[in-house]
Amino acid sequence: MSEIEIINAKKIYHDVPVIENLNITIPKGSLFTLLGASGCGKTTLLRMIAGFNSIKDGEFYFDDTKINNMEPSKRNIGLVFQNYAIFPHLTVRDNVAFGLMQKKVPKEELIQQTNKYLELMQIAQYAD
């Protein structure tokens, strides 16, 4: 996991500032909580970090690497959306494993990690 540093981030939608001059450092390996009222820019910020929203103003870093123009697939970030963004044609197990499969994790590790998270979320009984 990398340190995440955001310097002077700003995001405007239809002339309305959603994020203004945000400066934050999230230390490597730390647990971080992002709280705020509905519509205050939490999801927008996460989408900017993940690369799903453009970064027009401010600088975003993973460790010392500036990510403003980095492709989302190169950022190694996963995002769980507030609406149920699952693949209905896949099993629960395959939905849990999806990100690991995209990263081409070896099969043995994929099975181990998937089982770990199925147990952690107490949904192993629904896996298949």
Automatic annotation (TrEMBL):
The ABC transporter domain extends over 20-122
Pfam families cross-referenced by the UniProt entry: ABC_tran
- Which GO molecular-function terms appear in the entry? ATP binding; ATP hydrolysis activity
Q: Which SUPFAM superfamilies match?
A: P-loop containing nucleoside triphosphate hydrolases
Its Enzyme Commission number(s) read 3.6.3.19, 3.6.3.30
Entry keyword annotation includes Zinc: no
Q: What UniProt keywords apply to this chain's record, in alphabetical order?
A: ATP-binding, Hydrolase, Nucleotide-binding, Transport
> Which parts form a coiled-coil structure per UniProt?
none
Kind of enzyme, top EC level?
A: hydrolase
Q: Does the keyword Nucleotide-binding apply?
A: yes
InterPro entries linked = ABC_SmlMolc_Importer (IPR050093), ABC_transporter-like_ATP-bd (IPR003439), P-loop_NTPase (IPR027417)
Q: Which PANTHER family match?
A: SPERMIDINE/PUTRESCINE IMPORT ATP-BINDING PROTEIN POTA, SPERMIDINE_PUTRESCINE IMPORT ATP-BINDING PROTEIN POTA
Q: What is this protein called?
A: ABC transporter ATP-binding protein
Q: What is the lineage of its organism?
A: Bacteria, Bacillati, Bacillota, Bacilli, Lactobacillales
Question: Gene for this protein?
Answer: malK_1
